[in-house]
Write a structure and sequence with these properties.
Layout: H1 5-42, H2 48-84, H3 99-104, H4 112-121
Helix pairs in contact: 1-2
The structure holds zinc ion (ZN).
């Protein structure tokens, strides 16, 4: 079923809220990474063990930033699809993605069937939205 105006409006709100939350999360992440780096530079020379943990945390931080950035890009794309009227239409089959799925993943670009096929085909590569 195609989205009603009311559903489109609701999803628009979901996207805006998620986007705002994600942006503040990313800002905090960046602040934390900057602060950690500063403390590393300012602190006394750590032993090898501390250093490897610090490296691990830094890597995790980057991975977290990467996921958030991917999601943010997906939401940006969803906003522009809302504007041009292609939002909620499956990228692969042109069918309706469906309100429930969009409500759960507002940046979804495929219906569940096509997403399942996509994930099987590209198993191990980046998650949904990578082909945007
Ligand atoms: Zn589809």
């Amino acid at each position: 079923m195609a989205l009603s105006d009311k559903q489109t409006q609701e999803l628009h709100t979901v996207i805006e809220q998620r986007r705002a939350a994600l942006l503040s999360e990313l800002r905090e992440d960046v602040e934390r990474v900057r602060k950690d780096r500063f403390e590393d530079l300012a602190g006394a020379a750590p032993d090898a063990g501390d250093e490897s943990v610090a490296t691990l945390i830094a890597d995790l931080d980057h991975a977290e930033l990467g996921r958030d950035l991917t999601e943010l890009r997906g939401l940006e794309a969803a906003r522009s699809r809302l504007t041009d009227g292609s939002y909620g239409i499956c990228l692969e089959c042109g069918g309706d993605i469906g309100y429930e799925r969009l409500r759960a993943s507002p940046a979804a670009v495929r219906c569940i069937d096509c997403q399942t096929v996509h994930e099987k085909t590209y198993a191990g590569s980046s998650p949904a939205g990578s082909s945007l």
